[in-house]
Amino acid sequence: MDFNLPPDAAEMQQATRAVVERLLKLEPAYHATGVVPDEVETALREMGFYGMSIPEAYGGTPLDRITSTAIQLELARLPPQFWPFVRSALGPGVHIIVDEGSEEIKKTWLPGIAAGTSRNCIAITEPHAGSDAAKMATTAVRDGDHYVLNGSKTFISNANHAHSITVLASTDRSKGKHGISAFLLDTTTPGFKVDRAMTTMGWMDDSLCEISFTDCRIPASHLLGEEGRGLRYAMTGMNEGRLNVGCQALGPATIALEQAIEHAKTRVTFGQALGEHQAIQHMLADMAMDLHAARMVLWEAVWRAERGEDARLKASMVKVICTEAACRVADKALQIFGGSGYCRGTIAERVYRDLRVLRIYEGASEIHRNMIAKLLLA
């Protein structure tokens, strides 16, 4: 196996790194004002990042998984508030539209998503149906040439900024998970409401929402694929999404290690550099080993997925290994920085706070361990 990136992927990685380094200089301004500078969105659009998973026929610039992963590892060095809509454009909601949407749906929605001017999100989780998605209570009842949608969803990323939502709802409650279907909802549809934006520990913005549907009439043509296959479509998209989460974990953990190394070289304690203390050296060594091992797991999974192999087992392994390793690295980085790392506005504090959610969303670590065991025992 060649561990060097293909030339095109390496070139895109370097170009992305240059953009990221420029945008990182805007992070202090963001922390001071709470407003993401306009320059960030402009740069992301100019680089074409929104169209990485969308076919050229619909305005996208589709990339192979190797190149996309290299780019995402760089983007993930940014504060998560800088690129939430790129993550959505790479997520399962858009994948379902690409794979299962009608030609009319694709022509209507994908060009805007690829350009970064139209935003999509996916709505699966409900107040009483999280990891057990088959228990969802939101319903879609056929009524002539429409479906009538009723119910509520929670923890929906970017719902308050979305122009369209890929919604999973039950079309036949008696069939459980085999009765769940996928729909595309225009957020201007009467009866759709963003009930509230949720305040969270990390990812300090207003993009995590509770939403509701009250007699929302969706054209029957907005059914994505076939009735009863919505959960299967979502799980297929989430396999790739979990590889993306691996990037979202390792990107910030890498910058945390880099910052910790620099701090260990320049901070003087007891008459010598902090990094000359063996306790700190061992922490840095553990951080580097954790990251290297997790990175190898990610790249192997991406390589196998690009070859068309079944990604379910490896995707779950990536989700657990990368997110848990990243959290260990972030914890050690904050410890190395000491009191200054605990203060709001530092990269060590930001990374520590923001990484924690990655062990929960896109399937909690415990759920993925169950899935791994199930696949091993099958």
From TrEMBL:
The Acyl-CoA oxidase/dehydrogenase middle domain, residue ranges: 121-216
Enzyme Commission designation: 1.3.8.1
Domain Acyl-CoA dehydrogenase/oxidase C-terminal: 228-376
One Pfam family recorded for the sequence: Acyl-CoA_dh_M
Gene3D superfamilies membership: Acyl-CoA dehydrogenase/oxidase, N-terminal domain, Butyryl-CoA Dehydrogenase, subunit A, domain 2, Butyryl-CoA Dehydrogenase, subunit A, domain 3
Domain (Acyl-CoA dehydrogenase/oxidase N-terminal) ranges: 8-116
Family the entry assigns: Belongs to the acyl-CoA dehydrogenase family.
Protein name from the UniProt record: Butyryl-CoA dehydrogenase
Organism of origin: Piscinibacter sakaiensis
